[in-house]
Hints:
The chain has 454 residues and is α/β, with parallel strands linked by helices.
Amino acid sequence: MKSLTLFRNNLRKNDNPALFFSSVSNEIIPVYIYDDINIRKELGGASKYWLYHALKSLDISLENTLHYFKGNTIKILERLVTENDIKEINYEEPFLEDDIILHKKIVLAMQNKGVEVKTYNCTVLWKPYEILKNDGTPYKVFSPYYRKGCLKLKKPNKPLGQPNNLNCTKIEQTSIDDLNLLDKTPWHKKFENEWDISENAALKIFNEFIENSIYEYKIGRDFPAINKNSRLSPYIRFGLISVNKIWYMLENLNFDKNVEHYKSEIGWREFSYYLLYHFPFMAKDNLQKKFDNFNWDNNKQNFDAWKKGETGFPIVDAGMKELWQTGYMHNRIRMVVASFLVKNLLIDWRLGEAWFWDCLFDADYASNIAGWQWTAGTGADAAPYFRIFNPILQGQKFDSEGKYTTKYIPELSNIPLKNLQEPTEFSDKLNYPKPIINYKLSRDRSLKKYEEIK
DNA sequence: TTTTGAGTTGTTCGA
DNA sequence: GTCGAACAACTCAAA
């Protein structure tokens, strides 16, 4: 029998339930469809670059049998199953709104063709609809969700390993270039030595993290100049490694607060998918409705300065330059730049979300939205409104030697350490912008505005 | 139904 | 320089 395995956000061979359980079929036709019709928003530029390389890598591990199509998933599947006598489609279970809507259309269309559609959870440790409070409603606070909801409910599925007797077939010639994932201007050249985009690389990075860094993770994760984070997020985003694989590799380690902390960060990703599943409107609107009346400033000049890393606040600018140069930003610094945009500049979290979406390799539909709403105080389990990061203090505290700051802003290399986070106070003849706002005034303005909403 | 305790990541001020 | 309190009340979760 012929079956079609549809790859979407889990671009791997190892521990891929959709592929694993397809492999009992005689013949598998592996397909990736870049659907630019059944989506709410297009992938960002960085994501497309990552996707391009992830697909190429997957194609190689499937012995060059992966098919690439661009367009409407329904139309493409209808043609493929008809022309090739395919009886079964296997793919990942959808948990995000757009994917669920598409899934329903696929099932309907395939029913009409007499094709069975089977889905498998490839994406999360706990399915969002399985975790509910005793009263049957979803959690809105992370800690009880994670501790009482997830951890107490059941163990996540064990990873499946490599599929057996994989018999993939090429039925037509297609080219990845037809997906138009790479821009013509070679702006992405700068990433080529920065990231090794493959399933093997993901596993290697995670192994090295376990070997070298995990027992210093809980504290070390806050310091951008030292390499104590796993930097696995873009691999997880595109499913080059499964969260189940990660989870069970960690389970094999001795119980340790650092290991538990890393697991809880996986838990935060789960929580983001959970929130978007139960409250899909939060993709566009504030989870807390009272913020719908919030009057954002949205000053274009300020927003542009933030994007370019020209705010005059070194730790913010270093972060924004890291993002632009590497397609990644350290977690601590993400909070600093996001707090700065939303609270000090009073710019709508949706604008920040959109910029991250475009620039981050790990731009994840759920995590990005949930994270920005958390920072803005509009989301679940929100930060208290008076929690405003002071970029000068944060820089001094978490980049006390200035290594991170000067890595991305070399113009500041000769500034004495104690002046590094306020360089224009030290000298006004620098090749570096003056602060676009007065920190203290912007803080007071923000507190006032948030007080009106509370 | 009512009550109780708790809630990712901070900053500032004044003693 | 260090330390604790204030910042704010509300919503959520569970007994």
